[in-house]
Automatic annotation (TrEMBL):
InterPro entries: GH (IPR017853), GH_1_N_CS (IPR033132), Glyco_hydro_1 (IPR001360), Glyco_hydro_1_AS (IPR018120)
Protein name, UniProt field: 6-phospho-beta-glucosidase
Family, per entry: Belongs to the glycosyl hydrolase 1 family.
Organism for this UniProt entry: Gracilibacillus dipsosauri
GO molecular function, one term: beta-glucosidase activity
GO biological process: carbohydrate catabolic process
UniProt keyword Hydrolase, yes or no: yes
UniProt keyword annotations, A-Z: Glycosidase, Hydrolase
Active site residues per record: 379 (nucleophile)
Any GO CC annotation of this UniProt entry: cytosol
Length: 480
């Protein structure tokens, strides 16, 4: 272990992050209804569905496998997993509530008690080990009935259903959960509306109109949740959650610099401006005009958004993005989830995601300079192929190297003056990848014996990174 010469604040929230649909399994147990993730197949078929219009939200088990159905069976093994998180020293654990466990169809008047009781048990187990829950209210888990019957977040009715859901969980868990996030990676919705907004675009021509309308409904719903949270749980801290990727100009050509700035404002700043500042930014007007986007609003929406601003910004950081106004197909950075062109100065992961630790420091500074509210890195990690050695060990030094440099970048940002609340490494235990529906894309400090062909015992195993992260937490980032 090397001394970092960096200082993380006392009470810094070290931990890990997950989502219900990627680790719980038990997709038909406990009164749970089907949700979006339940009908998304694993493997390459998932990426194709995410990027095209017209997905019918039906399962075809003769053609596809559905790894989310079992995932890693956290539903039955949560005590074992939480004990391992406690062994690492977690101060916080980010998880999501599966909306369809609480309201199986999403539009019922009364909640499902079995679902509520499950999360009671999980939160109690976390508190038994001194771990604070950080709960995402909506994390790519829109109830399937709301998608098929109402058209997902394009439909204003979902605001009403979401409000009912939020009232139930805030009242039920008001003495157990202090930290909440409203919508996961809300700004990613225009790129992948299927995930965040629960609909497949009618066509590529209608994608932006439908997506920004759905986003407006989520802005209203988020503001309602913030106001309710502050009323029901006065000590609560409620944040928004963005996917953040700093946008670099390919070179110093002013045309490319301007293009990169415009792309960054739309992708990185628009949703944050609405949820933190409480108003639509002026720059979006031209974008709406040039793309024939016309947002239908109800009286009082803008006032509500202004009143329901978040307490902090949480975000995921996996990669940066490099842009050029005129690019050839050969220059496009295939595999980089947020687009752009290949950056010649960066290496990439096994899945083509460019690795840029300095970009995290840039992101933290950009966000704090713009908003001056506390920040929380709630997703960051390396998806990689892990190998179990003959002696049973998993020597994932590549993951340690990745995380070390990103944590160092956070420490530098804190030294720059950024107020950073905590860090939850993504996929702290191996789970099903959201983007590709694979087990093989592993992120965890804990290896789970489950494979894409369906084989595996689900046994848990500590990787080398487990012990490294344990020491990072114990020394509060002084030893990396």
């Amino acid at each position: 272990m090397a001394k970092s010469n960096l200082s993380f604040p006392e009470g810094f929230l070290w931990g890990g992050a997950t989502a219900a649909n990627q680790l719980e399994g038990a997709y038909k147990e406990g009164g749970k209804g089907l949700n979006l993730a339940d009908v998304l197949p694993g493997g390459k078929a998932r990426l194709k569905l995410l990027s095209q219009a017209g997905f019918d939200f039906e399962m075809d088990t003769t053609k596809y496998s559905y790894p989310n159905h079992e995932a890693i069976d956290f539903y039955h093994r949560y005590k074992e997993d939480i004990a391992l998180f406690a062994e690492m020293g977690f101060k916080v654990f980010r998880l999501s509530i599966a909306w369809s466990r609480i309201f199986p169809n999403g539009d019922e008047l009364e909640p499902n008690e079995e679902g509520l009781a499950f999360y009671d048990r999980v939160f109690d187990e976390l508190h038994k080990h001194g771990i604070e829950p950080l709960v995402t209210i909506a994390h790519y888990e829109t109830p399937l009935h709301l998608i098929k019957e109402y058209g997902g977040w394009k439909n204003r009715k979902l605001v009403e259903f979401f409000e009912r859901y939020v009232k139930v969980i805030f009242n039920r868990y008001k003495n157990k959960v202090k930290y909440w996030l409203t919508f996961n990676e809300i700004n990613g919705a225009t790129h992948m509306p299927l995930f965040g907004l629960g609909f497949s675009p009618t066509s590529e021509e209608t994608r932006l109109q439908e997506s920004f309308q759905g986003l407006h409904h989520q802005f209203v719903a988020s503001a309602i949740a913030v106001k309710l949270g502050h009323e029901i749980i006065p000590e609560s801290q409620i944040g928004c959650m963005l996917i953040y990727a700093p946008v670099y100009a390919y070179d110093s050509n002013p045309e490319n610099v301007m293009y990169a700035q415009q792309e960054s404002r739309i992708f990185n700043n628009f949703c944050g401006d609405v949820q933190v500042r409480g108003e639509y930014p002026s720059f979006i007007n031209r974008y709406f005009r040039e793309n024939d986007i016309d947002i239908a609003m109800e009286d009082g929406d803008l006032e509500l958004i202004k009143e329901g601003t978040v307490d902090f910004i949480s975000f995921s950081y996996y990669m940066s993005r490099t842009e050029k106004k005129k690019k050839s197909p050969e220059e496009v950075g295939h595999g980089n989830l947020v687009g752009g062109i290949k950056n010649p100065f960066l290496e990439a992961s096994d899945w083509g995601w460019e690795i840029d630790p300095i970009g995290l420091r840039i992101s933290l500074n950009e966000l704090y300079d713009r908003y001056q509210v506390p920040l929380f890195v709630v997703e960051n990690g390396l998806g990689a192929y892990d190998k179990v050695e003959e002696d049973g060990s998993v020597r994932d030094d590549y993951r340690i190297d990745y995380l070390r440099e990103h944590i160092r970048a956070m420490g530098e940002a804190i030294d720059d003056g950024v107020e950073l609340m905590g860090y939850t490494a993504w996929g702290c235990i191996d789970l099903v990848s959201a983007s590709s529906g694979e087990y093989a894309k592993r992120y965890g400090f804990i290896y789970v014996d489950k494979h894409d062909d369906g084989s595996g015992t689900l046994d848990r195993k500590r990787k080398k990174s487990f012990f490294w992260y344990q020491n990072v937490i114990e020394t509060n980032g002084e030893e990396l």
